[in-house]
Amino acid sequence: MNTIEEKLWNYIDGSCNEADQQAIALLIAQDEVYRNKYYELLQLNAEFAAMDLDEPPMAFTYNVMETIRAEHASQPLKAAIDKRIIRGICFFFVFTISVILIYALASIHWSAGSTSTHNVNTSVLPDLKHLLSGPIMNGFLFFDVVLGLYLFDGYLRKKSLSKIDESVQTSGQQKPQ
Amino acid sequence: MQSKFSDIELIEQTLAGNQSAYADLVKRHQRFVFTLALRFAKTREDAEEIAQDCFIKAYRSLNSFQRQSKFTTWLYSIVYTTAMTALRKKRVDTDSIDDENTYIQVENQTGGYDVNNVENKSRSYYLNQAIAQLLPDDATIITLFYNGEQSLEEIGQTMGIEPNTVKVKLFRARQRLKEKLERNLKHEVNELI
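Above: the input entities. Below: the structure tokens describing the complete assembly.
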């Protein structure tokens, strides 16, 4: 402890030990300089404690929650899709490609290597013509449309989020230094 | 209307997916967070931006809140870090962060008062004016101690310093505030004469 003020502030805050507390109380009671300073600081302390908090704009909570909602809305695109679905799709494609590759390799007449062409036995391949007709084709197109809409939705969400970010950044940059 | 739930209950509800619980938490603490941000920012717009940023950061990392300290202590430490970062960014091409004179220009920050009508000015106006002239660290300590009702230990946690250092800084901040308050009042009296 150094100055009278420091001692008195510690006394007012109650941050000094019991012995110091008693010693300062005695000084306040006996010494007029201490007493006057003590009342002065006490008044100042009361004024500091009565300071008003500033009021943020009316829409403050709304703005915070809107930003959080916008952030939340973008999450399903990245995080909310079950990883098992993604793995399943990956497995399907890897499996299909592998089967086709194995089948294609197995169909090649390796013994006919002297000629420049490979004779792929197309007669063994299943006839796919009937698969590309009617309801299957419609189903395929419908799936494509849904996928297209899904990707377009994702693109729009990303665009709107980047617009929000941009406006936040520009409003921050426009403020006077 | 303030929510009847405690901070921890509101946090649990938020983590369970109830966003309106977080809105209640924001409503409860927005005035103090905004005031604290205003101690660093020069304008209300900047303070609003900092305060919003803090609540969004707090929402994102609500999962990591350990509940070993009060929610307010945790929130105020986010405010302190965010505001300091914002202040440093703004100061890169202007003045030094420790330059006390920089803060003397912000007298109109509190706004809404008739500057010419001295009689209408209360002492609290001069106090706010004096606080706005303090360095951010001094103003933060004063605000946390008096408005935030934080202990020296909690202020230490918020600002990342030792409680004893907080004690010394608080003493110095009060001294400076007192000096500035007296100087402002004296200046107004001289103008009246």
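Note for the figure: Confidence is low (pLDDT under 50) at residues 104-117 of chain B.
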